[in-house]
Specification:
Blueprint lengths: L5 H4 L5 H11 L16 H10 L6 H27 L5 H12 L13 H16 L3 H12 L7 H12 L7 H7 L1 H17 L4 H7 L12 H4 L8 H21 L1 H15 L7 H4 L4 H10 L3 H23 L6
Helix pairs in contact: 2-3, 2-4, 3-4, 4-5, 4-6, 5-16, 6-7, 6-8, 7-8, 7-9, 7-10, 8-14, 13-14, 13-16
Length: about 325
């Protein structure tokens, strides 16, 4: 319990405690042990800055983490509606953000996790890229790369958006701005190398949670082991759901398809699927596609009833310290 206040700590389970630890004490190298090195810096930095005026203790850090998550979620939803309107009708764009809020693991967008911050940065980067404002798009993609391990995917997918513009792809400036994402990731890896002497220290840290680059199919035995995980069929069903929607996202826009494919590959690459339901929250093109499908009333109400019920269940489980992703 990071803060000692029960209702506040209910929002800071699992990774939330590590974010609080990093925000409080910085990065401490513990070779062979679980440590904060696996958590990227932007979210805990935002927590630290938000808590500083209120003393910076653990209560303030958890409260600041909650505040950052709620503000980021609101920004993500606002920009997601704007972005979706570039490709679909207004009703579909509004349904898309509603479906994000009804996704079974939506609790992570409000908890002390970096999911809503990453979603906001990704959607904003695409919005400004689509508007031709590549300086902002590049800066936001760089911030996304400092938020989640797969944040650099934003810059890679935006490169496809840049290629589709006949005028923009011939200009050096937009490409230079998009280089911020890979450079930010490289800089972070360089910092950890300076701190620890190991070039891939964040991968070593993830390995202490049995998260290693590999084939996700190798994780199926663990996924179906009741001693390890409790609801494998929900994980597989939502993964298949995300794959189908991502395939339609390619038809909606090429850059959306590339972003979705790379995100799906990233969430399957650690050799485990036990966090895939949480990472699927970043697949905003899939939700835009789902918004168009929701024009059929049976799709709309089926999703809201099933997703809403699962989100209530998973939210309660998370608050009670059960692992859900």
């Amino acid at each position: 319990a990071p803060s000692g206040i029960a209702w506040l700590d209910a929002w800071a389970r699992w990774d939330g405690r590590w974010y609080v630890s990093v925000a409080e004490s910085g990065y401490v190298d513990r070779p062979g042990e679980q440590s904060g090195l696996g958590f990227f810096p932007l979210y805990p930095l935002a927590m630290k800055l938000g808590a500083a005026p209120f003393g910076g203790d653990r209560v303030a850090l958890v409260a600041a983490g909650l505040a950052v998550s709620q503000v980021a979620l609101l920004v993500a939803l606002i920009y997601m509606v704007r972005l979706a309107r570039l490709d679909v009708d207004t009703a579909s764009s509004r349904r898309a953000v509603l479906y994000v809020l009804a996704y079974p693991t939506t609790i992570f967008l409000s908890a002390v996790y970096a999911e809503s911050l990453f979603l906001a940065l990704a959607v904003m980067a695409f919005w400004y890229g689509r508007r031709g404002r590549w300086a902002l798009a590049g800066i936001l993609s760089g911030l996304a790369a400092l938020t989640r391990p797969f944040g650099v995917i934003v810059a890679l997918a935006l490169a496809a958006e840049l290629v589709s513009g006949v005028r923009s792809r011939r200009q050096v400036g937009p490409w230079a701005w998009l280089a911020i994402g890979p450079l930010a990731l490289t800089g972070w890896i360089g910092y950890l190398f300076f701190l620890t002497g190991r070039p891939l220290a964040f991968l070593d840290a993830h390995a202490n949670w049995s998260v290693r680059p590999g084939n996700a199919l190798n994780a199926l035995p663990d996924l179906f082991d009741p001693r390890v995980y409790g609801f494998p069929w929900a994980v597989l069903a939502l993964l298949l759901f995300a794959i189908v929607l991502s395939a339609y996202a390619w038809r909606l826009r090429r850059s959306y398809g590339i972003y979705s494919i790379l995100m799906l590959a990233a969430l399957a690459s650690p050799g485990t699927l036990t966090s895939s339901m949480r990472h699927e929250l970043g697949l905003f093109p899939a939700f835009i596609v789902l918004g168009t499908f929701g024009a059929r009333r049976w799709v709309h109400w089926s999703y809201l009833l099933i997703g809403g019920a699962m989100s209530l269940l998973f939210g309660a489980m998370f608050a009670l310290s059960h692992w859900i992703g």
